[in-house]
Specification:
The protein is mainly alpha-helical. It folds into two domains: 36 residues, no CATH class; 31 residues, no CATH class. It contains two helices and two strands. A two-stranded antiparallel ribbon has the order 1-2. It is extended, with a radius of gyration of 15 Å.
Length: 67
């Protein structure tokens, strides 16, 4: 099993209140995550390709810098 790359965000009260307000407005639940590893800096073409693959697979993809 690979190491976790994301974890639940540690939010202050003000940030948590903002998320809760948005949840109320949208009628949804929102999960706040923060990366354990640096996210990759992608150019526009790379972002487009990543988004196309997300749509094709029906998932959310995050690109990380290798360590």
């Amino acid at each position: 099993m690979s190491a976790a790359r994301m974890k639940i965000a540690n939010l202050d009260e003000a940030s948590l209140a903002r998320i809760e307000a948005m949840e109320e407005q949208m009628g949804t639940l929102i999960l706040a995550l923060e990366p354990h590893h640096p996210l990759a800096k992608l150019n526009e073409e790379q972002v487009k390709k990543l988004q196309e693959l997300e749509q094709a697979l029906g998932v959310i993809l995050l690109a990380y810098q290798p360590q």
